[in-house]
Amino acid sequence: MGTPRACSARFKSPVPSSPTACQPASDEDALQREIEELKRKDLALDREIAQLTAEGYSLEELETHISLLHEYNEIKDAGQMLLGRLAVIRGVTTKELYPEFELDVND
After folding, report:
1. Of 11, 20, 29, 85, which shows the fewest CB atoms inside 10 Å?
2. What are the start and end residues of every segment in region (Disordered) (predicted)?
């Protein structure tokens, strides 16, 4: 083996940690600032919800829209997977299959 290295340096983890994870529990000022920031974000979200509600949007409509987007994405993913398998079988690129199925490459 080689010569042993000095172990005086502190270990630095390669895993990023959250800003509050490294703070001592006694650092109440930092925790208080974080709480205040979260309260400001909560208030901003409440204002945005109120604005959207005033514009005529409803929570039910939003939930339906999100659900339909998820369904669309799942169907599109399945279609892309099938198109990819067909391309492999035919020995062509997926892009080459788009005109055959009247698909737009930019979609």
Report:
1. 11
2. 1-29
